[in-house]
Design brief:
alpha/beta, 225 residues, 8 helices, four-stranded antiparallel sheet
Length: 225
C-alpha cells in the first residue's frame, strides 16, 4: 500500500510517517502543493492523507487533482474543525476528516476502514488453514484437527489477523490497531499480551515454546514460515 502524505509541519510529519512505515505502508511525503502535484504525476497511490493548510495553497487543491486521477480515497488531516470546512472537504470527495491533535491509533484505524471500503474483492476468502488450524469465516468457526475451538470475539479477530498475514512478522502496534478497530475501543499493550496468551492456550500452542504463534524477539509475532 502506497500513501501520499502532504503535511508541512515537520514534527507531525516525521512522527506520522515513521508510524505508517512501521505499519507496513510505503509513504511519500510532500510539504506543499507544488511537490504534491509532481509526486502524483510520477506515482500511483492507494490513499492520500492531506493537510488542509499548506504554504502555497491547501489540501482541497490536491484533492481535486487526486480525484481526477481515479477512484482513490482521501483523508483530510487538519487543525481546522469548523463545520464549513468539514462539509466542503466531504463534498469534494474526501472520505474522512480528522482534526489535530489526534490519537495515532485512531488515525491508523480510520486509514484501514477507508481502504476496506475501496477493496474491490468480490469473493473474500472464507477458509484459512495453517498447521492443523482451520478457520471457516463463513461460519465464524475455528477447528484444530477437526475439533471446534471456542473463542471470544476478540480472540477470533486476533486469530484472523494472523491468518490473513501468514509468514509475515506483525508488530504489537499492528495487532493492537486491528483489535482496536474491531472492538471500537482502545485496547492497551497489556491486554494484547493477555489475548495472545489465551489464544495460544485455546489453540493448543505451548506458551513456553510456541510453534503456531511464534514470538519474533524485538519485532512482534508471526504465524507460518
Amino acid at each position: 500500500m502506497k500513501i501520499l502524505f502532504v503535511e508541512d509541519d515537520k514534527v507531525i510529519a516525521s512522527g506520522l510517517e515513521y508510524s505508517l512505515v512501521q505499519e507496513g505502508y510505503t509513504v511519500l511525503h510532500c510539504t506543499n502543493v507544488a511537490d504534491a502535484k509532481k509526486t502524483i504525476n510520477e506515482n500511483q497511490f492507494n490513499l492520500a492523507i492531506l493537510d488542509l493548510s499548506l504554504p502555497d495553497g491547501n489540501g482541497y487543491d490536491i484533492c481535486k487533482i487526486v480525484k481526477t486521477k481515479g477512484d482513490m480515497p482521501v483523508i483530510f488531516l487538519t487543525a481546522i474543525d469548523d463545520e464549513v470546512n468539514v462539509v466542503m472537504g466531504l463534498d469534494m470527495g474526501a472520505d474522512d476528516y480528522i482534526t489535530k491533535p489526534f490519537r495515532l491509533r485512531e488515525l491508523l484505524s480510520r486509514i484501514k476502514s477507508v481502504l476496506r471500503r475501496y477493496d474491490k474483492s468480490e469473493f473474500p476468502k472464507t477458509l484459512f488453514e495453517f498447521g492443523d488450524i482451520k478457520i471457516n469465516t463463513a461460519q465464524a468457526k475455528v477447528y484444530k484437527r477437526e475439533r471446534e475451538i471456542s473463542l471470544t470475539s476478540l480472540e477470533y479477530r486476533l486469530l484472523l489477523i494472523f491468518a490473513n498475514n501468514v509468514g509475515q512478522v506483525l508488530s504489537r502496534g499492528r495487532l493492537l490497531d486491528g483489535i482496536w478497530d474491531f472492538a471500537g475501543e482502545f485496547v492497551n499493550d497489556n491486554t494484547l499480551t493477555v489475548y495472545i496468551k489465551r489464544l495460544r492456550e485455546k489453540i493448543g500452542d505451548d506458551s513456553q515454546n510456541p510453534t503456531i504463534i511464534k514470538t519474533v524477539r524485538g519485532m512482534g509475532y508471526k504465524v507460518g514460515d
